[in-house]
Structures are given as structure tokens and as C-alpha cells.
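thought: user wants a sequence for this fold. calling inverse folding tool.
action: design(structure=
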């Protein structure tokens, strides 16, 4: 009997189910989007029930497309959009409200109150994360304050709270668990003691006993039959936040190995080994994973708008009808044009952390047109990633030797070449895009004994090498830095 590994990548925009054979080759994928629920105030939400339903539907779709028996699937991995926060009734299994998406800043007032207590620096030192509405601690506190049912259930110790992985594990297996990578992104987890921090939880009005059990990323989280799709239950035995899963999928298990994921936003992540390093330059320190009974740490910078900038060009400006058009337009742009776009549509993330910054376009001339604006949008993605990596090198003392990348925008040759030019180092693009789903599959497959660790070295990469003259690189960086100062 052939053995297959099922991986579910639950991302900001939708849900993918991926099916891998015993050689670690991707055989099929199936995708479904979910609604982006945006209020008049700009709050961003998702329906947790819709997300879970799409997990079940895509799992069924991918097995049918592959023409295999569902019973040939022997284990399952999950990668998930991080920071998006879910609260549910553990008695009924129903959510008490829509999930608050990582992009949503509605909990800014909670963060302001926490900062006034003087605990902000303690939070940063213990969790590796500065106080920000980006992270689940404030989002869950907001739910407890504003959703009466949540408060009632919390008082009765029946409220489920956590990131999307915890919600899916609960619905699939009935186990109340999260993994180390996701826990470390909640701003409630002490990354030094490797446990929920009771002082910080209390500051946000959360009881540690009400949070999920934190489990190794390659542990067995529970058993599932995928709501009757399978005739027998299989283990969910690989769970990682999506960016951590991508790092694992790239095989970045060594200190200093770095990747950038280009999605709606971007995560730039460096493996810093088995000891945490505190950032002094606007980055965060998290756990990469607990794998084979060892924890690894990462330094990371998160950017709110990278791939979302291309979506903005299409859906709001109407300058393009598809992302595929951007490369040719950027190459047509006037080389002398100095237009810069700073996409601070919901403030700026790492390394600036300025939630009230406003987006701007500057440096235009009378001849600036569609091509120049599209080029500026693409360049803004590379500039932001370069800023994060510069901060990372200062914090760790580790010079970047190469950058591994993943995500839809990496298909854009102009963007990848410009990224290499700005960083003055090689940029390596794999022949696969689904690195988060791949990483979760590899973790689950290794855990279940389907794969050996050699599977981490099976991807094929094409490289972009720097070719921009240093004078031009400096000029470009100076123009960008001036624009950022204006936005801040």
C-alpha cells in the first residue's frame, strides 16, 4: 500500500490541502478562499467555522483529484496563519465571534493600557515581542472585554483561546493543544522558561489554565478521521506557524540560515540556534520549533504589506488586471524616475513598529506613469525586506550569506533580481511555492516515519546574483530611507 502525507496550509487568504507521496513529492493540491470580513472601521476578521469547513472540503478534494483511497493517508500536518486569534466554546465547539486577523489593529487601546502599567519592557524581554495589537495577547484581551459570551465562558473555564492551529487541532481531534512556534507568537509565552507567563497573562486579563497545552511541533497532537473522510483515524503530528513551517521546508536548521516568505505580508526569519538573542533594532525573537526534543530560536521581522501591495494595484487602483503583468511593466519603467511607494496602509511593522504611519507615494515627475508606479510598488517589497535583514545582521552579528525565498511574488524575476541587488547577496528561489505546506508535511512525515530528514534537501533552487553597481544601490537606498522618514 502506498503511503501519503496530508498537509493543510491555512493562510490569510485561503486554505490549501497538499498531498505528498513517500518520496516527499507533491502530488496534488486543492485550494479554497475564505471571506475577508472588513468593517467600516477597518477591522479585519475571518469566520473560524468557514475555515474549518474549508479544511475538510480541500482534504476531500485533494484525495479525489489524486485518485487515491483516503485510507492511504497515514498522517497529517498543519501550517497556519499566525497571530490570527480565535475564541470558542469548548462545550459546543462553536466560535464566540469571528477570528481577529493578524493585520487588525482594533486592540491598540489594550496595548496602550498595558504600556501605561510599565510592564512593556518585561513583556519584550520575556516573550521576545514588543507590545503591539499585531499579536494575540491584545486580541484575546479585546475579545474578553467586548464579547459577553467569551467573558462568561472564561469565568466557567470553558473558553477555548488561541491561534488558528489550536482551533483546527481542537475541531479535528478534540485535543486542546498548540505548538511551540505558535505559542511563542502569542506574546503570552515565556521563551526562556518555555511556559505560559502568569504575570503577562494576568496583565492581559487571561488565566494560564485557560490556554492550550504547548506541545512539541513534531508530537502527536491527536487523532482525526477528518469528519468521516477516513475509515480510521490518523495522527496530526506536525504543527507549525506558517513562517516557521516555511523555514523548516527550506531546510534552514542551521544557525544563520535565513528565509523570506512573500505572502500578503512577509516574514523574514533567521535561525539563531539554541539560545535566544534580544533585538535592539525592532525585531522579535521567537521559537522556531521544538523538534526531536530540542528547541531552536529565530529572529524575525514581519511586514504588513508586500504581496498585498500588488493586490492594491489591481483591486483599488485598477492599474493591472493580474499580478503577472507587473514584471513587464516594471521593466518598461523609466530608469531615471525616482518614484517611491511606502505601503504603510495599516502602519509599518518591523523594524519600525509605527502603527499610525500613513502610506505615501513621493518623488513623482510629470512623466511618471503606470509603469513607474508599478515598479515602485515592487521595489517597496524588496526595500522593506532589506530593512529587516539589515536590522537582523546588527542584532545577531551574523552576515547574510544567502536568502531563501518563497511565495507567489517570487515568480517575479524583476523583484527577485532587485532583492538580490539591494542585499548584495544570492537570492535562492525553490521550484515549489508552497513552502509552508511543504514544511508541515515534512515535519509530520518525519514524525510518523514516512520520511527521513533527507527530505529537507530535495528542493531545487534557481539563484539570482547581485549585479547592480554600488553607487546605484546606495542612491536607491537613500531615496527609500527619505521616503520612510516622511511616512513615519
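)
observation: tool returned 488 residues.
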Amino acid at each position: 500500500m502506498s503511503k501519503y502525507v496530508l498537509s493543510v496550509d491555512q493562510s490569510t487568504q485561503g486554505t490549501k490541502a497538499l498531498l505528498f507521496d513517500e518520496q516527499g513529492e507533491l502530488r496534488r493540491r486543492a485550494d479554497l478562499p475564505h471571506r475577508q470580513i472588513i468593517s467600516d472601521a477597518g477591522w479585519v476578521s475571518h469566520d473560524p467555522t468557514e475555515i474549518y469547513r474549508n479544511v475538510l472540503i480541500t482534504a476531500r478534494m485533494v484525495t479525489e483529484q489524486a485518485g487515491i483511497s483516503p485510507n492511504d493517508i497515514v498522517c497529517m500536518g498543519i501550517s497556519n496563519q499566525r497571530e490570527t486569534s480565535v475564541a470558542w466554546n469548548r462545550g459546543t465547539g462553536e466560535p464566540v465571534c469571528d477570528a481577529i486577523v493578524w493585520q487588525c489593529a482594533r486592540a491598540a487601546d489594550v496595548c496602550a493600557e498595558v504600556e501605561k502599567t510599565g510592564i512593556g519592557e518585561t513583556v519584550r524581554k520575556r516573550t521576545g515581542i514588543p507590545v503591539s495589537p499585531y499579536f494575540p495577547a491584545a486580541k484575546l484581551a479585546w475579545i474578553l472585554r467586548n464579547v459577553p459570551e467569551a467573558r462568561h465562558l472564561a469565568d466557567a473555564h470553558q473558553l477555548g483561546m488561541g491561534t488558528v492551529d489550536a482551533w483546527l487541532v481542537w475541531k479535528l481531534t478534540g485535543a486542546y493543544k498548540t505548538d511551540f512556534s505558535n505559542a511563542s507568537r502569542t506574546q503570552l509565552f515565556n521563551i526562556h522558561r518555555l511556559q505560559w507567563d502568569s504575570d503577562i497573562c494576568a496583565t492581559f486579563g487571561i488565566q494560564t489554565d485557560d490556554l492550550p497545552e504547548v506541545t512539541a511541533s513534531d508530537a502527536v497532537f491527536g487523532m482525526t478521521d477528518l469528519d468521516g473522510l477516513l475509515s480510521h483515524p490518523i495522527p496530526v503530528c506536525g504543527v507549525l506557524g506558517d513562517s516557521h513551517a516555511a523555514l523548516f521546508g527550506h531546510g534552514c536548521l542551521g544557525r544563520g540560515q535565513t528565509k523570506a516568505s512573500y505572502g500578503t505580508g512577509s516574514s523574514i526569519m533567521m535561525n539563531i540556534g539554541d539560545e535566544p538573542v534580544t533585538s535592539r533594532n525592532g525585531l522579535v525573537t521567537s521559537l522556531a520549533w521544538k523538534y526531536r526534543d530540542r528547541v531552536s530560536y529565530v529572529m524575525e521581522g514581519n511586514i504588513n504589506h508586500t504581496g498585498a501591495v500588488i493586490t492594491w494595484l489591481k483591486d483599488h487602483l485598477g492599474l493591472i488586471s493580474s499580478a503577472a503583468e507587473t514584471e513587464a511593466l516594471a521593466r518598461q519603467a523609466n530608469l531615471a524616475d525616482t518614484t517611491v511607494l511606502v505601503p504603510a496602509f495599516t502602519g509599518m511593522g518591523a523594524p519600525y513598529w509605527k502603527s499610525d504611519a500613513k502610506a505615501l507615494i513621493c518623488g513623482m515627475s510629470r512623466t511618471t506613469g503606470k509603469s513607474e508606479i508599478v515598479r515602485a510598488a515592487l521595489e517597496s517589497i524588496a526595500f522593506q525586506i532589506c530593512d529587516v535583514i539589515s536590522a537582523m545582521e546588527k542584532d545577531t552579528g551574523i552576515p547574510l550569506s544567502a536568502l531563501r525565498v518563497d511565495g507567489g511574488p517570487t515568480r517575479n524575476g524583476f523583484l527577485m533580481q532587485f532583492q538580490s541587488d539591494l542585499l548584495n547577496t544570492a537570492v535562492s528561489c525553490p521550484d515549489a511555492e508552497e513552502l509552508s505546506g511543504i514544511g508541515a508535511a515534512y515535519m509530520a512525515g518525519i514524525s510518523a516515519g514516512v520520511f527521513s530528514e533527507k527530505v529537507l534537501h530535495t528542493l531545487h533552487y534557481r539563484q539570482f546574483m547581485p549585479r547592480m553597481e554600488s553607487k546605484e544601490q546606495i542612491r536607491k537606498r537613500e531615496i527609500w530611507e527619505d521616503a520612510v522618514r516622511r511616512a513615519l
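thought: summarizing for user.
answer: Here is the designed sequence. The domain at 4-240 is CATH 3.30.420.40 (Nucleotidyltransferase; domain 5).
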